UniProtKB/TrEMBL annotation:
Highest taxon of the lineage: Eukaryota
The protein's name: RNA helicase
Origin organism lineage: Eukaryota, Fungi, Dikarya, Ascomycota, Saccharomycotina
Enzyme class, UniProt record, top EC level: hydrolase
EC numbers for this chain: 3.6.4.13
Length: 584
């Protein structure tokens, strides 16, 4: 059926300049569409008058006159209060300050709903998706990294205590109001890292597909067709793999036909899967666009025309300068979309501008904790210019790792730490130093590694922490320790004497040294420690890197290596986190 027919010229997607013209036609008229016929997606967006939920107002320019008026009336100025609670990340602050009314609305919804049963979800979908959460949540301490088996008692026990996270509550509540309204609905879901955004978009998506199956009379004739019904797009193959592991559980649970199209998949495999109908496909924009360049697939536009539900996860990346053209082209090929959900942990100002320019009707659902770092994280600044490190960041790092190893937190379990450096060129040297000089168990990962290598390297950090075999537990007695110098360094540490509780010091720490390539979206289960070898350049980098620990309201420890010339605002980071201040 999918023999060669497609012409490449037909598929060549428009250049950015053409696209920008096309974009401006969304908000105004069709006059600047370069004489090209407007796509169905275009016209849907341009004719839409009301966003499905409140759209995002730009609060970056303060309205002083309004503030003053409010102050004169003797009432507290909401705007000024908000500014007081914002932490400007040095000269690089680039996060949107947000619209307080959106956050207030979320708080109201969250205060009224605290159970999955209060949300409008098909009972079967609710039940199975709660099984999935219970089988993989990092809060479920009894998980042993086993195959998905909802019948297990530890899964069922944990399921009873499950509550929706704030972003899950607000997203499911808001989307359910108009889920089956056939008009195009575009939403941006924004919430802090590790807040359960994957389920926040997956539950409405699955609920939608299941409702179509039971409510749409055309379903009987559609169900055996070669169609793709929904797509989840992500920027990296690691994230495709991670999200697919969750999505794949819906195959046995709800009879969903799921498909992962990643770096290793063949076109033949895709065509085979398509013949049996794909309900949920997880992939990257690049893979979708490649459909237009292969001979095996006949009329890719037709395949994509049945996609009704699209999720763009890590949307601020997918719409940044280097991705926006591909991402936008991908969306435009899906002519009959009913729902588009953009999902992000951060709303940089640039992203906010892009999304409102491309999709003026976008409605925003944001969690009350957006742009805050989980205050349960303990942030420590380590000055590498001080003795005994004397300017050596590597010595400071070695000492941090050593102290992590001995801290007696989660005794009996392996420890994992992720070290972020700003430049990928520095990764091998830092990793080599830690391994060769300080004897740590380290893997180094950069964008230069192949997808397979990366997946293999991050594997141990993605699974729940393993119990250590044969560890003697016991408190470390500071009186009974002796000083030890780390070889070839001037770092002196205390070590338990032979025969005491030394096995509690036994190195069980696994260290991953990497860059921003792994800072986003990866759910490092059981990674309690993050070390920032360099000060992140932007608040977006800070939020994402720190967000690899302290997920779902857990505790995490973060060490930031600084120097004596560090700016004052950097020194303020620990206190803004503990005081739960919004970062901008
Ligand atoms: N309602 C819930 N209760 C308990 N755990 C949950 C719940 N929902 C999701 N989780 C778990 O929380 C963890 C974090 O979820 P997820 O990866 O979706 O976060 P995220 O918001 O997408 O993070 P990031 O912004 O870093 O991508 C996962 O282990 C997930 O299984």
């Amino acid at each position: 059926m999918y023999s060669r027919l497609y012409s490449v010229t037909q598929a060549r997607y428009f250049s950015l300049s053409t696209r920008v013209n096309a974009v401006s036609s969304y908000s105004s008229s069709n006059a600047r569409s370069n004489g090209k016929p407007k796509s169905r997606v275009d016209s849907k967006w341009s004719t839409r008058t009301k966003p499905p939920v409140k759209s995002w107002k730009d609060n970056s320019k303060p309205n002083y006159r309004k503030d003053l008026k409010e102050d004169v009336r003797g009432r507290p100025s909401q705007k000024r209060d908000q500014q007081k609670q914002q932490f400007k990340y040095g000269e690089y602050g680039n996060l949107s300050e947000g619209d307080p009314t959106i956050l207030e609305r979320s708080k109201r919804i969250v205060s009224k709903i605290n159970d999955f049963s209060q949300l409008k979800i098909l009972p079967e979908v609710r039940d199975k998706l709660m099984d999935v959460i219970a089988s993989e949540s990092l809060l479920n301490k009894s998980l042993k990294n086993v195959e998905y088996n909802p019948e297990e008692s530890n899964v069922q026990e944990f399921k009873k205590s499950l509550k929706p996270s704030p972003i899950q509550t607000t997203t499911i509540y808001q989307t359910s109001k108009t889920l089956m309204d056939p008009q195009l609905q575009v939403r941006l879901i924004a919430a802090e890292t590790g807040s359960g955004k994957t389920m926040a978009y997956l539950i409405p998506l699955v609920d939608y597909l299941k409702r179509v199956e039971s409510e749409n009379p055309a379903w009987e004739s559609m169900k055996s067709k070669a169609i793709v019904r929904s797509i989840i797009l992500l920027p990296t193959h690691e994230l495709v793999e991670q999200v697919y592991q969750t999505v794949a559980k819906l195959q046995p649970a709800l009879g969903m036909h799921t498909y992962k199209w990643d770096a290793g998949s063949s076109y033949k495999g895709f065509v085979e899967a398509l013949k049996g109908r794909i309900d949920i496909m997880v992939t990257t924009p690049g893979k979708i666009l490649s459909l237009f360049n292969i001979s095996m697939v006949n009329r890719p536009d037709r395949i994509l025309s049945q996609v009704k539900f699209l999720v763009m996860d890590e949307a601020d990346t997918l719409l940044d300068k280097s991705w926006v053209e591909d991402s936008y082209s991908t969306i435009k090929h899906m002519q009959n979309l009913n729902h588009v959900l953009f999902c992000s942990a951060t709303i940089p100002k640039e992203f906010q501008k892009t999304i409102t320019r491309l999709f003026p009707s976008v409605g925003v659902i944001a969690s009350p904790n957006l742009h805050k770092i989980n205050h349960k994280n303990q942030i420590k600044l380590i000055n590498a210019d001080m003795a005994p490190y004397k300017g050596s960041k590597n010595k400071a790092l070695a000492q941090i790792l050593y102290s992590i190893n001995r801290d007696n937190i989660d005794p009996g379990f392996e420890k994992r730490a992720v070290v972020f450096v700003n430049e990928k060129e520095n990764v091998p040297a830092v990793a080599a130093k830690l391994t060769n000089q300080y004897g740590h168990d380290v893997v180094a990962l950069t964008g230069n590694d192949s997808v397979e290598e990366r997946l293999e390297k991050i594997g141990p950090f993605m699974s729940p922490p393993q119990r250590i075999a044969k560890v003697k537990l016991g408190k470390i007695d500071p009186e009974n320790t002796k000083a030890k110098r780390i070889p070839n360094s001037n770092i002196v540490i205390e070590e338990a004497p032979e025969g005491s509780s030394e096995s509690a010091f036994e190195s069980t720490l696994k260290v991953l040294v990497t860059t921003d390539v792994l800072a986003r979206g990866i759910n490092f289960r059981g990674c309690r420690y993050v070390v920032l070898y360099d000060i992140p350049n932007t608040p977006v980098d800070l939020v994402h890197r720190v967000g690899r620990t302290g997920r779902m309201n857990q505790k995490g420890s973060v060490f930031i290596i600084t120097g004596k010339r560090v700016k004052n605002w950097v020194k303020g980071i620990p206190s803004i986190v503990s005081k739960n201040v919004t970062i901008s």
